[in-house]
Write a structure and sequence with these properties.
Blueprint: H1 2-26, E1 30-39, H2 51-60, H3 73-89, E2 92-103, E3 107-119
Parallel strand pairs: 1-3
Antiparallel strand pairs: 2-3
Length: 121
């Protein structure tokens, strides 16, 4: 009977260790930095969109995406859509791509690449 308790204690300790590792991996990542790269494809450069304008649009749409906030992939997609709409409002058709790079131990850098497709107006 004593061996059975010993086996149970070993198995219980093992499962607790796995739970701790899983909890560490599932812990939320934090956005450490957000970068923008604008690429003009013709002689007329893209108009500048200020960070204040971008942040105000994000806030007005209820999108919680900022440095030192919890990383949310859905918020990143919504931020890309906000960038498309801001440039569209300025008469520019753009393609917005993004990449997410891990910064150990639990942070990420989000980079947006804004590529001019045409000067529509």
């Amino acid at each position: 009977m004593r061996r059975c308790w010993t086996c149970c204690a070993v198995i219980y300790s093992f499962l607790l260790g796995i739970g701790a590792i899983t909890a560490q991996q599932a812990s939320p990542r934090t956005v450490r930095s957000i970068r923008f790269r604008v690429i003009s494809t013709n002689s007329k450069p893209l108009p500048g969109i200020s960070m204040d304008e971008f942040a105000a649009n994000m806030k007005s749409r209820g999108i919680d995406f900022a440095v030192e906030r919890k990383f949310d992939p859905i918020a990143v997609e919504k931020a890309a859509d906000v960038l498309r709409k801001l440039y569209s409002g300025a008469g520019q058709e753009v393609r917005v791509e993004h990449t997410v790079s891990a910064i150990p131990p639990r942070s990420v850098e989000v980079s947006f690449e804004i590529i001019q497709l045409c000067a529509c107006r």
